[in-house]
Amino acid sequence: MDIKTIATGIGIVITIAGLFVYQGQLIERVEVLESKVVDTKPIEKDIIAIKKDIEQLQKKSSNPLAQ
């Protein structure tokens, strides 16, 4: 075997090992993100307020005397 073949084999092994390490890091990051709890209470309050505003506008627009 010449040195080029050996160097190519070592390079391929190192590249594949690096890909496995990177994949492990990505999986760990995803697990950390999935474990975080997001507080959605403020968003829910905003949605309820917007729904009330929409209902009031619909009632106001459906009243022929208000036009």
Characterise the protein shown here.
The longest helix has 33 residues, at 3-35. The protein starts with a helix and ends in a 5-residue tail after the last helix. The chain has helices spanning 3-35, 41-62. The radius of gyration is 30 Å and the shape is rod-shaped. It has 67 residues and is mainly α.
Keywords:
67 residues, 0% strand, rod-shaped, 2 helices, mainly alpha
User: What percentage of the residues does DSSP assign to strands (E)?
Assistant: under 5%
Order of helices and strands: HH
**Globular, elongated, flat, extended or rod-shaped: what is the shape?**
rod-shaped
Radius of gyration: 30 Å
Low-confidence stretches: none
- Secondary structure tally: strands: 0
Helicity range of the residues?
A: over 70%
**Biggest sheet details:** none
* Overall average residue pLDDT: 90
Itemize the secondary structure elements and their pairings.
Layout: H1 3-35, H2 41-62
Summed up, what is this model?
By secondary structure, the protein is mainly alpha-helical. It has helices at residues 3-35, 41-62.
